[in-house]
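User: My collaborator and I are trying to settle a disagreement about how two of our proteins should look. Neither of us wants to argue from intuition anymore, so we agreed to look at predicted structures for both before our next call. Could you fold the first one, then the second, and keep them clearly separated?

Assistant: That sounds like a sensible way to settle it. I'll keep them separate. The first protein:
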Amino acid sequence: MTDDDQGQWLSEAERARLRQPTNQRAVVFTLAFTGLVTAFMMTLLTPLVPELTELLNVSVEDSLWAVTVTLLAAAVSTPIAGRLGDLYGKRRVVLVLLVLVIVGSVIAGLSSNLVPLIVGRALQGAGIGVIPLGVSILRDVLHRDRLGGAVALVSATLGVGGAVGLPISAVISQYLDWHFLFLVSGVLAALGFVLVWKFIPVSTLRSEGTFDVVGAIGLGIGLVGILLGVSKGGSWGWGSPATLGTIVGGAVVLVLWGLFELRTPSPLIDLRVAARRTVLLTNLASVTVGFAFFASTVALPQLLEAPTATGVGLGQTMLIASLCLMPSGLIMWAMSPVAARLTRARGARTSLLLGIAIIAVGYVLAVFLMSEVWHTVLIATAVGFGVGFAYAAMPNLIMSAVPATETAASNGLNSVMRTLGSTVASAVLGVVLSSNVVTVGEVTTPSAAGFQLAFIISAVAAGVGVLFTVFIPRHHRAYRQASIPDADDRAGEAGPAAQAA
């Protein structure tokens, strides 16, 4: 793509912005901040879920839609936002996503019943696409020498925002009106919008082609079908027509969608690129990382908050339980520069392998350490340590194996795979913990055997991720304009900064 070709997309105002020097530190800070804000939306309502039935006068099953819809919206919107970013400019799409989060916060903040709350939460969930778009912006803007650390930092926000946001949400839910949650989220998203507008340069590296509307609709229907069936299977019944219909129907739609994508000249996701061994195995490993990370947010809070009278629980409040999980997010943040250095020295594959192995060890320890509060802090920290390395590695592996013009769409697909893993973890561990219970008086909680089985399943999932990672090629033949060419690939390949120029 020549400079003249790129320039035809730019307005006079955008050309003027390009002539201004780029503050790379401000770019990294802005994208990390917006990543934290949008990740915060995913757990914003989690501490309040038990009270929604009374606050909104709805059933427990209906109240869970306020959480489920956010997950579904994130999964569907992320690859679509990535493709739109590749076509029309990543900065522009980031701004649109932040506007959706602001609008969603306003709608949810003014709601007094379930339907507008669900609408607002869906709009908030759409904002999660900011994170893979931010990673792709870094690739376009930063010098290669600074890219690894910045990618690790922004990637980590997916876990950090959720973990650190939990105690904030718990405090607001416990001491203030619950609508203040959305006031905070709206203000943060608005601040992120201002920062992006001021510090992020316009995108000049864009794909040719048109937006695949049919592909976007097909992917949305397929993903919603599978994720909805998996997430609601516990309440609908795994053998019920609704569960089987949504899962099987979603799978059929995705197969037809894949056949269509292979034949369309401008696909939403280039499946030939996605089928490259490095991309495919990294995405499969991402499913296991998403499973293992979300497993800690499913099992550990229940263990912490269950009454001690059951002989299993640790009897902590919602706020204390959230604080016990917060080190998981903080360690992800702290490990991002370490993971970047390891990636530069030994490669992203090594960083991913180490991260998933640490997660597996953490869950093996959890099988035997679940009787003290500090045990849960240790396990959460170990999982955060491993996820920090894994999240830092996956975007680098993806971008080293895809064309420079498909970074946002490819990173978006990788985020969808993590979301799929999280959804499966929620469903599988929900069944495990609800099927293995102990009752003392009127209190029923998961049993010790239930928690141990949940930790064993999580360890096995991480072990499968290790196997996927082992088979990721150490080196591969790069595209002529690969996003991040490997050092051992074609000699003379330009770095990302040169390609974006």
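The second protein, kept apart from the first:
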Amino acid sequence: MSAAQDPRTLFLRACALDVGVRKPGNVSAASPGHGMDARLFLDSADAARHGLFAPGARVGMRIEAAVEATLAVAGCNTNLGIVLLCAPLALAIERCAAPCTATSLRRSLREVLDSLDIEDARAAFRAIAAAHPGGLGRAEQQDVNAAPSATLLEAMRLAADRDRIALQYVSACGDLFGLGLASLATHAPRPGRVDEAAVQALYLAFLGRFPDSHIVRKFGPQQAQAVTDEAAPWLARAERGEPVGADPAFAAWDDRLKARGLNPGSSADLTVATLFIAGAVGAAELPVPP
């Protein structure tokens, strides 16, 4: 595997591409917000990668180590959703026989997810409680503030109807391998290349179809649905091939979301994880960040 194909490099590039592109409501190089800036997210990715890609480590250990390292450099939760999505993917890539294709990686991921045990749940619960994501609240079953009595996959299954990231554990990242990779294939300016417009179309593919889980937790399902309704016309334009990022109204929508405290963080997490998968299976060449 070349240095450019190294999973740690691909992860950093996916995270850099994410904050390098304006995605309304999210922090980007062009638009800080929510008390954070792009540099904080880049530092978080750099810190998290060591735990995420520790050779042979189980998923729960990867999650806990990555979150601990992130909190040490950022002092707040910047990437819990990314870590939760990429930890099983990292182990699946490690176990995926070369050449790793979308089909073989998803098969490997299913095996990883099916092997999750209660120790994975304990480590992940500790990490989630430490990160304390906004609007976490309490769950009737398998609350992260208590010791789990189920495997991590079973716990995610209980949350899958209200959390899009938990649903990826149940579906073996169905949204990412399906909608996500299809969006990149459609909107890449040429096969294998990813640019700003492709990333924005990918982000809108999630936000314009599904109420964002982060907004649901913090502000409720009605507010989340309202943001999805706002995103839908932008998604339609992106799907017609229009460069939405060039429209001043796109930046204005970004500003309005931040002014209202609305951050579609889960949609951004799904975007990062899709970019990571695309790089790992050769479906996209992630550009080297400036």
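Some points you might bring to the call about the second protein. Residues 3-280 form a domain with the Triphosphoribosyl-dephospho-CoA protein fold (CATH 1.10.4200.10). The radius of gyration is 17 Å.
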